[in-house]
Every structure is written in structure tokens, then in C-alpha cells.
Amino acid sequence: MPASPYIAQVALPVPLRRTFDYLAAPETDLSPGMRVRVAFGRKLKQVGLVINVTDKTALDRKKLKYIDKRLDSEALVSRAHLHFLQWSSDYYQHPLGEVVFGALPALLRQGRPARTKTGFRWQLSGEAKALATDALKRAPNQRRIIELLQAHPQGVTDEELRSLPFNFAAPLKALQQKSMIKKTALDNRARPTPPARAIRLNTEQAAAVDAIEKNLHGYQCVLLDGVTGSGKTEVYIDLIRQVVESGQQALVLVPEIGLTPQFISRLQQQLGTAPVLLHSALSESERLKNWLLARAGKAAIVLGTRSAIWTPLQRPGLIIVDEEHDLSYKQQDGFRYSARDLAVLRAKLADIPVVLGSATPSMESLHNVNAGKSLHLRLGKRIGALRPPPLKLINLRAQAMSGALSRELIQAIDAALRHEKQILLFLNRRGFSPIMLCHQCGWVAHCERCEIPLTYHKHKNKMLCHHCASRRPVLRACPECGQDGLLLVGHGTERLTESLAAIFPGARILRIDRDSTRRRGSMQALVDTITAGAADILVGTQMLAKGHHFPKLTLVGIIDTDQGLFSADFRASERMAQLFIQVSGRAGRTTTPGTVLVQTHYPEHPLLQTLIHHGYAKFARALLKERKGAGLPPFSYLALLRAETKRVEMIESFFADAIRILDKNRHGLARYGPIPAPMAKRSGRLRYQLLLQSKERSRFKRHLGDWCRQLEALPSAKRVRWSLDVDPQDML
Ligand code: ADP
Ligand code: ZN
Ligand code: ZN
């Protein structure tokens, strides 16, 4: 114990790129990774995290405040994990305090203790087990609870009771007072149930497992490049099994929680251990519990979405990133990190393998293979010997259309319906129609804050801005010329569903988009309906493109391609190809071969041609060559400085300052702009951006770091909202 007060460097959840020095009394035994309570600015009780303890400070010791209280008796964040957080903050030039606090469950951010109450579950007591259903007639909610408990003799947690459509607190209490139900302690540890017979891997899968297994005890990055339905998931499961058996933990990232139920049940069935989940739909207490289980090494498998990359693990053994190309791994606001890229880094720091799986690998991952940085393992065959379905183009030029549907597509749908097969129509645009205009004068209904057209939503009977989410009542007449009624131009999922119902009156049509799945659990209900074969035609946005396995689905129709062909974003063609292959992968996954029909006005487009006649691998090779020629990522690195504000002069003076600082020391760094962002206005603010490019990563990082620290100190930076996006995925 030091004899005199010492200095604690504390990270606070504020947008400043520094830590803050506080005095610690000699008897306050602090070490890095512990939380403390301090006074900060006007806040008297701010939770902070100790990053370092030292006896030096650059400030006047007399002016420093004392740590108010120590909140943890041992480090909440281990040194290894803190190192990872620090590295992430440096790489993305994001303030450490925000990174550190963003990585903690909300309850810990608020300073709550790092423990959870021992969980418990409700069970029926003796008499109630045999209770007749007509008992409790005058207390229907109590009866619903009894019925639920009768159906789950192993017990039900408070969490699970929350699925009841009423407030369960009062009826639960009444039942407890009548001694009809009882509490029993919940054991958090997974009890392994004997696994069901494991699937025998085919030659390709076994070869992949062998290759990875050889180096299960050190860092290695593997690209598992397997066509949809080739059994990648089985390879993951086999690797996870080995890691878990050796007493280590596996971290599995998936793009969307809607896709996990199938994965979870396969893990559970084959490994006998339920994964511990971390995703945005958990309640805060659940999240804390799971986070602590992972940290304590009690969760053998941790499965989650993007933010699960921040889960602390006591004994990390393996990281898996499924659908590694997926855009959802990149956070698009605030701290703009890529969980895929961080997974690779984290594996390197922990010296463990990382497996990136995809049927349509990103250009970045393919480039790493070419550069010898990762191992390329291919699964080329689908299980069940069915080849991926062929893609066929339908030329829409000069064709008669029924709404958004060509005659050829309608005939194919009709044939599939007659064979009692399922059909998926892919249209990546929700709502009824994307444009409402006046037939008389050409006026277009638009969002005044974002200057883009409003989408008409028929069921809601509203006009919605898909960028800022503002809604307006539907206009009955043109505000410019007074003409009655507006023309609905273009097709969204709502309109497509309506035209299908008119053409195929007997068909059961399901629409799956963000509007139809907003309620919690509704996505799973829709997926169950489809899997059970209780739907004929599915109309879906990209929510349905990924991961699902629908045995009866044989025909996929892609309604609109032309948007993806003509975009200013250099990544648009990569995205389009990935989406095509993913959507196509939904067809013909069991015994009947599938077909994919692609509607386009530009069938001769070279990109479409390569993709359709030669497949994704060849397409990717051509695209990489193109990127290399143009010096675009992955052959160079980008960063985007964005700023927005209401007044253009403020933007101008901020960028003028930013460029002046940058140009003082700009070796090997190109800059473009500032230019108005592709969406030049959003929610009433003007948006500008400056693009930086470099061929050399580590120097780029140093450069950006220096630059950001200077930007932060600028008076002009205080009058705009600015952010830096390192490795931007989206130029909007
Ligand atoms: P992917 O993840 O590549 O899309 P999956 O792992 O989901 O592929 O496999 C597709 C289907 O094939 C699943 O139903 C899976 O259970 C089955 N499957 C995978 N590997 C085998 C195997 N070796 N033997 C039998 N069935 C398998
Ligand atoms: Zn008009
Ligand atoms: Zn808007």
C-alpha cells in the first residue's frame, strides 16, 4: 500500500480522447479494470473505470479531486480485455471512455454491483398440479399462469412469464399467498444432456475440420468459403465441441438474432449445452447475468450479434463469425466498429483461431487469403448432392407487366403453386410505393428535413420517410396545383403482396419485412409458419435472404435488380452479388432442385453476366481486379470525416481548419472533398464529408490519431456534429 495519495487514470463515458486523473487515498486499493465513483463536471456521481494507477500526473496535484468510492473489489475488466478495448479505441479513433462503457451492460455502467441475484423459477406446488381447468374461473389471469406452469413442469422464470399478455405481478402474488405455486432456486450452469447421435461429416467438411484442428492452440484466421447448404454450421459445431471439451469457451457471432433459433437448437441437440446469448433483445438483468457467466468462464458457448464481440471471456478458445460478409457487423453510428475485423484482432491478441464463414466472402477476406494472411477452406458441394439453383435473367424491356411482375415470372409462380412448392419473391423495399407524385404538375411528396421522397404505407395510411422515420398524413390533393389524388409510382412489398393476392386468389401469401415483424417474437412465428409449409408465396426484404432453411422453397424471384447496378457506391456491386447468392441459396435446399429468376432491364450488364454464368468466385476475382486497378479497398484504406449542422458557414470553417491541420503533415495520404454527402440533408441538417485514403495502414492510423486529437481541440469543431469513420462501409 502506498504511503501517500496516488493517481488513478480514469476513463469516463464522455466523447473526449483522454483519461482523467484523480487522487486515490493510500487505503483505497485500486487496480486497472475496477470501477470507481467520481465527481466529474457538474455530475457528482459519475461511474468511471480505472485504466492505470501511477504516481505521476501532468496536472497540479492540489487541483485534483479524490476518488469518491471504489465500486469493485476486484477488476471488473481483465487486463487482457482492457488491452483489447484500448486497441479498438486507438484503431477506430474513438474515445476510450465511450468504448469501455459501451462494452459494459447498462446495469454495470450505472454502477450496480457485478453480481446477479441467484435466479429462481416458479413451479406448481403439490395440489395445484392436479387442479381442474375450471377452477379459478373468476381469476382468468391466475388460471393462465397455472396453465403455463402445468405445461412446464421444470419451472418458469420471471423472464419467461413476461411473454404473458398481462401484468403477471398481482396474480402471481395471489397464487403464492394461496400456496399454489412455489419458488425454486435456479442453477445457472448448463447441465449437459447426452448429445443426440452426431452427424457424420462428409469428406469436404472433415478436411476443413482437420485443417483447422491442427492449429486449435494458436492464432489462425480461416476463411470457410462454403456454398449455402454445404454444411458450414456442422463444421462450426465440430470445432466448438473440441474447444468446449478442452474446457475453453467459444464465441460465435451471427448477423441477426432472427436467425439464431435454428442454430441454437442444433448446438443444443448436438453438444448438449445451450449457448449463452448476448443480443439487443435481452432485458438488462438478463444481459448482466449472461455477461457475468461469460466473464466467469461458466458459459461454454457465447452466441450473439455484433455487440457480443465485447463479451469478456475467461478462457477464450475459438471465435466464429458466421456470414462474415454481412453489413450488420459494422456499427453505422456512434462508435463505428466492425465486429468481424475486431474478431480477427481479438483472436490474434488471445492467440486463438478465428473462423470467418460465408457463401459470399467479402473482398477484404478474399484479399487476406491472397495475401497469405488467412487459410482458405472451401466447401463446394451442397449436402444432398443438390447443386445451387441456376440463375436465369428475365429481360423486362418492352414487356407487358402485371404490377412488378413479368409474365414469365407469373407463369413460374403458377407452376410452383400447382406442385405445392413455396415461392420467395425478393424485393428490398418495404411499404406500398416509394414515390407519390402529382400527375398534373409533377410535384413529389417528400420529407422536408431529408429532401427525399416519402414512401406510401397503405396499411398505416401514412407517408413515411425511411431515413428519419417521420410520418405524415396522406395528402388527398396536390399542395401545388390542387389536383385531386396523387399517383403511386413504383412497388414496395405491400403493393407486391396486394397484386399477388389479385393474381393468385387461392394462395397463402406472407409478407416478411421490418413492418410485419416489428413485434417481438413475430419473426419467429412467421418463420415457423413457413417451415411448417403453411404459406405458399413469401414476399420478403433482405430479412429473409439470410440463413433460413425452408424445405419446401423451390422458386426464388428477384423483382428488381436495376437499383444495384447503377450506384455511386463502389461497394454496391459486391453487395448486389452477395444478396443474389444469399437469396438464391434459399431455393431447392432439400430434394427438388430450385430455380432463381432475376428480373432486369439490363440483362447484358457484364457484372450480371459474370455472376450468372460463372458464379460468385469468378465474379469476386473480376471485382478484386477492378478494385486493384482503381486503388480502392482492400488495396487501400479509407477513413471518412463526416460533419453535420444547420448552417453551411459552420461546416465550411470546420473543414477549412481540418484540412489546414491535415496538410501540414500529409505524406502518402490522399484526400477528397469536402463534398456534400450522398444524402446531403438528413433530419434538417446539412451533411458534408471528407474522404481520406492511404496505402499503408499503420502510418494511416498514426496520422488519423494525431489529426483527431487536434480536431477535438478546435473551436470550430464544437459548432458541428462530427465523426470519423475508419474503414467506412457505407458512404451515406
Ligand atoms: P450451411 O451452414 O453451409 O448453409 P448447414 O450446416 O446448415 O449448411 O447444412 C445444411 C443442411 O445439411 C442442414 O440441414 C444440416 O443438418 C445438413 N447437413 C450438414 N452436414 C451434413 C452431413 N455431413 N450429413 C448429413 N447432413 C448434413
Ligand atoms: Zn400538382
Ligand atoms: Zn426525413
List the defining traits of the structure above.
732 residues; alpha/beta; 32% helix; binds adenosine-5'-diphosphate; binds zinc ion
Please explain how this structure is put together:
This protein is of the alpha/beta class. It is built from 21 helices and 33 strands. The strands form nine sheets. It has a seven-stranded parallel sheet with strand order 10-11-9-12-13-8-14, sandwiched between helices. A hairpin with a 6-residue loop joins strand 23 (462-464) and strand 24. Helix 8 packs parallel to helix 9. The longest helix is centred in the last third of the chain and has 25 residues, at 606-630. The mean pLDDT is 88. One zinc ion binds next to loops.
Described by strand count, sense and barrel closure, the largest sheet is:
7 strands, parallel
The main sheet orders its strands as: 10-11-9-12-13-8-14
Present as ligands are: adenosine-5'-diphosphate, zinc ion
Distance between the termini: 53 Å
Write the layout of secondary structure elements.
Layout: E1 6-11, E2 20-24, E3 35-40, E4 43-54, E5 69-70, H1 79-92, H2 96-102, H3 106-109, E6 120-124, H4 126-129, H5 140-151, H6 158-161, H7 169-177, E7 181-185, H8 203-213, E8 220-226, H9 232-245, E9 249-253, H10 260-271, E10 276-278, H11 284-295, E11 301-304, E12 316-322, H12 339-350, E13 353-358, H13 363-370, E14 375-379, E15 391-395, E16 401-402, E17 405-406, H14 407-418, E18 422-426, E19 435-437, E20 446-447, E21 452-453, E22 455-457, E23 462-464, E24 471-473, E25 487-489, H15 493-503, E26 509-512, H16 522-531, E27 537-540, E28 553-558, H17 562-565, H18 572-584, E29 595-600, H19 606-630, E30 637-645, H20 648-663, E31 669-682, E32 685-694, H21 697-713, E33 721-726
Parallel strand pairs: 8-13, 8-14, 9-11, 9-12, 10-11, 12-13, 15-29, 18-27, 18-28, 26-27, 28-29
Antiparallel strand pairs: 1-2, 1-4, 3-4, 3-5, 6-7, 16-17, 19-25, 20-21, 22-23, 23-24, 30-32, 30-33, 31-32
Adenosine-5'-diphosphate is lined by residues 199-202, 205, 226, 228-234, 383, 549.
